[in-house]
Amino acid sequence: MSAPFPAFLDKDRLPRHIAIIMDGNGRWAKDKGEDRLFGHFHGVESVRDIVEGCAELRIEYLTLYAFSTENWDRPAEEVSGLMQLLVTTIRKEVPTLNKNNIRLRVIGDLSMLPEFARIELQEALEMTASNTGLNLVMALSYSGRWELVEAVRRIARSVEEGDLSSSQISEQTLEEHLSTHSFPDPELMIRTSGEYRISNFLLYQLAYAELYFTEVCWPDFRKQNLYDALLDYQQRERRFGKISEQL
Ligand code: IPE
Ligand code: IPE
Ligand code: MG
Fold first, then answer.
1. CATH numeric code, 14-143+184-235
2. How far, in Å, is the centroid of ligand 2 from the Cα of 161?
């Protein structure tokens, strides 16, 4: 990880947290006359390159949307192919994560995952738990609505048990019950493949994220495309409801 820092980027204005909807694997493969899993397989190359790119830039958090709650409704062969790919990739990548001081984290409804995948993930989480560099957050069987419902359930339980009164519930209470509770909100959200939607990703946390969309499909997305997104981000004025002169 000794690549030079891209000179056109301002080191002092990088996001702490980048979130990516890795989309377009299926269409990328179809264009090449291949099946959808071929696209997912090549998407792993992009994950490697982008994780390395973020680690080189000293980004603190990278959240990758790898599988949504709704993706369970895809054809069974695609779902099982994706689960296999997940497990083999994690197994292969743990040594590289450790070498680069990267800590794996997961958000999502892991109870939905097949047992072999859950075990493999748990092991990888433990084996990287003491790394202090980039936090690589995989959103797996994740959706923003699922997460909010879970949070509300847990808050309601605290109220039922008398540990909390409804008037004490604040934004902070909600944030503490989200699966991202110790992470800063993403300042930049990237979606590939020319789709302009959120698709149930980080609904609460993206409130003030800068959104960046590109036509590039995920299997073609590389560090240079990440730098383009960051350059665009650095040209934005983030006002958080205020006016320019107040910033
Ligand atoms: C993103 O690519 C990966 C996952 C959702 C798992 P897609 O599989 O959605 O590819 P397209 O959007 O159909 O091209
Ligand atoms: C969003 O992509 C989920 C992931 C990238 C994991 P989808 O391809 O599932 O989203 P839609 O169906 O186009 O909204
Ligand atoms: Mg898609």
1. 3.40.1180.10
2. 38
Give residue limits of the domains in the chain. Answer: 14-143+184-235
Q: Is 74 in the pocket of ligand 1 (CB under 6 A)?
A: no
User: pTM value?
Assistant: 0.97
Residue 105: CB partners within 8 Å, gap ≥ 6?
125, 135, 136, 137, 138
Q: Please state, in angstroms and as integers, the Cα–Cα distance from residue 138 to each residue in 17, 209, 237, following that order.
A: 13, 18, 29
In the reported structure, the alpha carbon of residue 121 is separated from the centroid of ligand 2 by a whole-number distance in angstroms of: 22
Query: How far from the centroid of its chain's Cα atoms is residue 70's Cα?
Result: 16
pLDDT beyond 80 at 247? yes
Atom of ligand 2 nearest to the CA of 199: 14
Ligand 3 center to 170 CA (angstroms):
35
Q: Is residue 127's pLDDT more than 60? A: yes
* Pairwise CA distance, residues 100 & 55, whole Å: 8
Q: How far is 190 from 120, CA to CA, in rounded Å? A: 28
CB 190 within 8 Å of CB 21? yes
Q: Which residues are catalytic?
A: 23, 71
